[in-house]
Each structure stands twice: as C-alpha cells, then as structure tokens.
Description:
A: mainly alpha; B: alpha/beta; Rossmann fold; 41% helix
Amino acid sequence: MDLLPVALTIITASTPLLLAATGELVTEKAGVLNLGVEGMMLVGAIAAFAAAVSTGSGLIAILVGAFSGVAVAAIFAVLTLTCLANQVATGLALTIFGVGLSALVGSNFVGISLEPLPQLNIGVLSTIPILGDLLFGHDVLVYLSFIMILLVGYFLSKTRSGLILRAVGESHDSAHALGYSVLTVRYLAVLFGGFMSGLAGSYLSLVYTPLWAENMTAGRGWIALALVVFGTWRAGRIAFGAYLFGAITILQLHVQGWGINIASQFMTMLPYLATVVVLVFISSDKMKIRINAPQSIGKVFYPPR
Amino acid sequence: MRIKSFLREILAVFSIAALSCVGVANAETKVGFVYVGPIGDHGWTYRHNVGRLAVEKALGTQIKTTFVESVKEGPDSERVIRQLASTGHKVIYTTSFGFMNPTLKVAKKFPNVRFEHATGYKQSKNVGTYSARFYEGRYIAGVIAGKVSKTNKIGYVASFPIPEVVRGINAFLLGARSVNPEMIISVVWVNSWYDPGKEGDAAKALIDQGADIISQHTDSPAPLQVAENRGVKGFGQASDMIKFAPKAQLSAIVNNWDNYYVERTKAAIDGSWKSQDVWYGLKEGMVKMAPYTNMSDDVQALAKKTEEAIRSGALHPFSGPIKDQTGKIVVEAGKVADAGMLLGMNFYVEGVQGSLPK
Lengths: 305, 358
C-alpha cells in the first residue's frame, strides 16, 4: 500500500486539533480557562462557509471564520474578565450558544457544496518526489498551523511579552502589583484563542469536509482542550499529541479496511485511549506538571479598586 | 455533551408549550413529529421533515404540524412524546428506532391518540409501525457498482452493526456479484450515525486501499464528497446528494415518507386509522432511486431493468443460493430469505472482508 496518501490524510485530521489547541494554550497560559472552544469552532466553521459561498474567495472565508471566532471569544472575555462571571460555566454556555447560533445561521446553507481550498505549492519544493507532496503540497491553513505552534512556543518561552503573559497566568495579583495590566493581557489571550478556534472551524468547513452540517465539529473542540492539558501546556507536546491523535484516528480506519479482526468499538476508542496514555506517560513527572500548569487558571481576578 | 442535549430538551418542551398555546383553532387536527437528528442533516431526519411538509401541503388548513428535532433516544424522548400527546396532538410520528418503548408507554396512557413509529417491531392498538425496504435500493446500487468498478472493490462506510445496516451491506454485494462475481466489499465501522469528518476519513482510507466505489450507511454527504474529490464513484444515502458530487454520484437511495404520512394522517382524520405494520419498498414508492447518472447507457438500462424487476416482484434481492462468509449455504437455490432472516440479519455474505463486529 502507498503510505503517502495515508500520511496526507493524517495531516488533514490533525490540523484542526492543532489549530484550536494552539489558541487554547495561549488562553490558558494567561490564566483563563475557556471551555467554549467547540462553540467558537462551530461559529468559525459556519461563518467561513457562508463567506466562501457568497464571495467565492478562500482568503476572505478564512478571515471571516477566524474573526467570527474572535467575536464569540469577545463575549466570553467581557463576561468573565469584566463582569467576573465563572469561567467554567461561561465556557460551557459559550459552547451551547455556538452550537445553537451556528445551526440557526447554517440552516440556509444546508445542502450546498464547496470547492476545497487549493493546494498552495511552494515553488520547486513541491516538485520534490514524496517529500514535496508530504511537506509542501498543502492548503494555506496547514502551513499556518505549523507556523503558529512554532511561533507560540517561541513567544511563550523566549520573549519578554510571553513572560509577562505567563506571569499573569501564574499569579495575577503579583503581575498586577508589578504594574502589568492583567485584563489587557487576558483579553488579548482570549481573543487569540477565539482567532485560532475560528481558524480550526474554517478548516473543517472549507477543507476537511467542504460542506456545512450541523454540529460538524463532533467533539473536536473538546479534544483540543484535552490536548492542552495532556500536553502539559507545552507547545511541542501539544503538537505531538494532536498528530498522535490524528494518526491513530486514521490508522484505525485502515486497520478495519484491511479486515483485521479487532472490535470496531475498541478501534473507535483507541485514539482517545492511546493519546491519553502516551501523554500521561511522557508527562509523568509531577514536578514538571506543576511547573507548567498556570497557577491562576480559572480563577477570577478582582482588580483592586 | 449531556448538557447540550439537556438544554435542547428544555427548549423543545418550551417550544411545544408555546406552540400549543398559539394554535387553539377548533377544526384542525394537530400532528406531531419527533426527530432524532437535526432537520439539517441532509439525510434521515431531513427526509422525514420533507414528509411532514408534504402533509402540510396536502391537507392544508385541516391540520397543524409540530416537530421536535434532535431528541435523544431513550427516556428523554418519552417526555417529548408525552408533551405532544398531552397538548392535543391526534397523530404523532416518532421517527427513530430508539423511540420504540417510550412511544408504546405513552400510547398506553393516551388511547385516543394515534402513534406511528418508524423502523420498530412492536405494535399496539394505537401504535402502528412502518419501515422501508432500503435493501432493494442497495441491491440496485450493487448492480451498478459491479458494472462500473475497475478495481472490483467496494468501500462501505457503516455506522453500527445492527441488522438494518448488515442487510444493506449484504444486499449491495449480492447485487454487485450478480453481474461481477469478483466483487468484494471492505467495511469500515465509524460507530456513529453522524460525524462528517470521520465519515470522510473512513472513505479516504477505503479509497487509499483500492476501493473505487464508495457507499455509506451514515447520515452525512461527506463520504460521497470525498469520492468526488478523489475521482471515484459513490452513492447518495437517504436523499439525493447530487449537489455534493455532480461527477461522482451514480444514484442515491431516497427515503420517501411523503405518501405514507399523508395517507395515515388522512386516515386518522376520517377515523379509518387502524394499527398496522408496514414494510414498503420500491413497489409502494417508499424507496426511490435518484436519477442514474455518471454511467454508460448500458449500465443505466441494466439499473432500470433491475429496479423494474424488483418493483414487479420478479426479482428478490435475497434469492438463493446465498452463502455466508464460511461458504455455508444459508438460502437455498430457488428460495428467498424469509422475513425472520431479513429482520434479524447477523451474518455477512461471501465476499465481505473482515468479520462482523458482535
């Protein structure tokens, strides 16, 4: 069997998870737990799809999808950061809101098909046999997912702004005492999370399955959330987790297609199980988790008046 | 995501309450529909909703319809059904297998309300059941696949290993082997009725393993869309999906509840309604085939001939001799599979790859 198409399918299955998890990583590192990833993805998906249908432009569709995610995240930010609402409850509400809103808007787009985004070939690199197809023959969102996780990893660990963001996530009171604006940092982090979730949603409705179907994320937002935790808030591990999950998801389908006799229910479970086990194993050092987990996550910051 | 469905139920109950306050006209009969999925799934629930609209169109001001979508199977559905029954609905259609026991339970308490349950097998005085012989359409699809395929391999994206789905896989392969004995089927179970991404991935995996015909027993058009993008052929499921795959769709097995819903609603209004158990197929028009496209005239003619033969009763898709995977004859030559075997089908016919999940 040709392994190349399998590898390409794995990349498409992993990209939406990686995009959404990258955004959530930044949000959580700033100390905010946004459980509304699924909702933001759905809104991004329908917005991008609607934009693609009405304008025919992939670029506009991606931008509309991403900024719709930002708009939904802004609701979350206002409620939790300014109005000091509970983050867990608000995040769950945001998911339910996203499911409903996207279904409402999407009712006009049921049954419409779309041309998927074109491959973005990078000059001569794309013509290298195998490697060219594998690394340089994708649509723009796949490249973006690679670039973003690299940038975010660098930003968080190597830049001064990243340090401030982490400080806010570790102890908002100390960061505030040092003169950093906790609210500004957190607003930006939440909006960035919405942007990435919107991109992930756009990927689903523009590339993965270029159609609109109600609730088409089918739980991928929750998986992205879990990846952030199991990846112990480390960019590299999150990318690894996303690809591990994507790979097992696709490979279990192949195993079934070959007619190997393993219960299909078990195979369906396998991506979740394997990803959790592997990530727990590589992050079994409790001390390291404590170092990486943002200490103020989910806590409401009461600005001293 | 229990919270989501919980909220949906609350919304559903509220919307029923609201609707029942609005429509207190005297002469009109209220008709209720309970759906398992969203009406926008473009598959199963979508077609039931088309049936509801047909009732509205045919009976106009005589009736008023209400529907509740995305109702979870099991105890939650009982609440929704009871709500409909207690708010003056005279006919209630419950359109998923898992609504069976809740429907019967509510029906006992509301003897004057007529219930119609799709795909179930338990009836009572005021509960009728109805289903469609989709396997007849699958057989025709198989015949087409047997003629069109070059790799002799069919990829089948399946939901859950229940008799309905297994029957479809077997009928498909029997059809294919009737014109090309070399045909085989690879099955991938996705353990979901509805997950477009995963359905699409399964189709990709099957195509990568050499299948050049894709068929699916899940509810979204994603597998067919993958077939279109990869340049292989496929079939629509539940509704005509040609819009998603203008170059790939060979045909589609279309569920058509329209006439049944209109007739049964009429019967309930004029008082002639009686509990019954129907399993209609091509003959009665409950199963329809979308136009035969993207194939040569010969294949098209053969497909039409097969369709006609099944409709007239000259051909039964499960005619012997049929062998199971071990080579044992399960239906002897000259006989057809009986209703018991069809309804409880729990084996693969010869030529299906892999073993059936238990």
